[in-house]
Model the fold of this input.
Amino acid sequence: MSTIVPAGIDSLDNHVDDEIVGCLSLTEPKSFFLFAGAGSGKTRSLVKALDYIRLNLAHELRLHNRRVAVITYTKAARDEIIRRTQFDPIIAVSTIHAFAWSVIEGFNHDIRDWLRHALAADIDDLRAKEARGRAGSQASIDRQADIAAKTSRLMRLDTITRFVYSPDTDNRGQDSLSHAEVLEISSDFIRTKPAMQDILKDGYPFILVDESQDTNRHIVDALFALQATHPTRIALGLLGDMMQRIYGDGKAKLGEELPPDWIKPVKKLNFRCPRRVIRLLNKIRQATDRQEQVPCSRAIEGSVRMFILPAATPNKPAVEARIRAAMASATGDEKWIEKGGSKDLILEHRMAARRLGFDELFSSLQTFNPFRTGLLDGSLPILSLFSGKILPLIDAREDKFTIARIVRTLSPLLSAKVLRTVVDEAAHLSMVHAAVAALQEKGKANNATFGDLLQEIASSGLFEIPEALYSSIGKETSKLPSEENEEDDRSARDEAIEQFLRVPFDQIRSYVEYVTHQATFDTHQGVKGLEFPRVLVIMDDTEARGFLFKYEKLFSGAGEDTTIASTRRLFYVTCSRAEQSLCLVAYTSNPEGVRNHVIRQGWFDHSEVELAV
Ligand SMILES: Nc1ncnc2c1ncn2[C@@H]1O[C@H](COP(=O)(O)OP(=O)(O)OP(=O)(O)O)[C@@H](O)[C@H]1O
Done:
């Protein structure tokens, strides 16, 4: 089946960008709500709107020291918009957390007051629950610990002169605010403090929020309130797609009760996906808002396949390699079997770790919760020592120039401070040489562990060692930033590190590839907003264990509930990333049942579904 496309179809949605430009007036700003399906060019429309502002309103904005606020969901999306608007300083692009912090940073007195009330209310609430609850139960023990921690924080509040926060870390210091607090405080301030509203309306005539279906609902509500109070000074632009709402933080029913003066442009085209994928997306969407997209004129037919295999299939990575080969022959596209030819989507990071061969590295460190953020984005100092210093030095092999550059820039042995104290420079340099050679030798050994390399560095002093590793090399550790649960934290942390140091060093390579997005694997949620020629979606609830989304349930034909609805949305997000061909792999306890269901739904033809490979 192929859709017949009338001529000139590609200009079908051109009116949308004009409607948005119509909103971008400094004298009569109008708010708009651009919600449209995957690949419809929402991000492109956002960039076009920003280009319009840069070209036509920049002078006026600069004159009054005003900027345009753009809020993105991820740091990657932020960087992309900054790049596409050529680093123009009048466009202030930030993630929601950075935006929220920029609003409240420095309002230390107000933050302290807010925390005083919030902590007191929390403590009252916990005490009431404790009075009703069963004494001696785990819940009671947890509640009492919580009450003690909050009480001690409350007592310390007056000693904090400046609250700090970083969107990218775990914020565990005594004067730190948590991510949730920053969002709550800023939304509260925006809603209730006229002075805060004045700062925002004077600073930002336009606030544009990308992926607003997943943007924290408190902030979205606060922005709505801000715009409603100052409709002639500020325009809010919300972009998104309710079908792509995959995080629990977003505002349910966003857009259902928009003020009547908001502009609601409609997009119908999908510029990204092949026709066959668009038909699949339209079918998936039939269960919700029934929006249908049409392909652009250059869209290819493309293809989809679904492989449905038993959950207990042994050696899944080998099976998936055979599936890629089957896709290459079904589509005639050899890229399916080339390294990096397809984007392979897994449900959680551990599944990638297993397939890429860094499972032990990952599982050892993920047991300590505060390590998780850094482990997933590659910023954990314990790992940066190995990934950013030791690995490049080992990989430099005989390349004297690279070795010299690494050692000169990264080794304390060649720092100006150390060199000033050196008496015999030649002897010192030859010691550094020997240290590099010994490290390289150790790194080449097949069975070298992280611990082996750490010991090498500890004895040569070639690189600084992060504090978390001090106890592993017999050095005294200072206190953790937080005093709360310190003993538990310390022993859990040391246990994780001890396990990690026994892991083969070689696993660092595939880990680095994964966290720098060079590997073929990514998570289902992590690719929101992105696009790839060939997409392989692996759905395996058993392997993902306890995951929020349940593909088994979605494919079982069970009655609608919130899990099915959110899994369907995630399914829509993953399928809509494909530009040429799409391959779905479902591991299930009931392959026949799943096949019957997906065919009955009209998602796939018989010829597109395989029960074996
Ligand atoms: N008017 C257009 N003409 C040609 N190509 C377009 C047009 N609009 C969008 N595209 C292309 O279509 C693809 C999808 O666009 P974009 O990422 O902006 O869509 P989106 O609506 O933000 O998608 P999603 O919601 O799936 O993240 C991109 O490759 C983009 O360059």
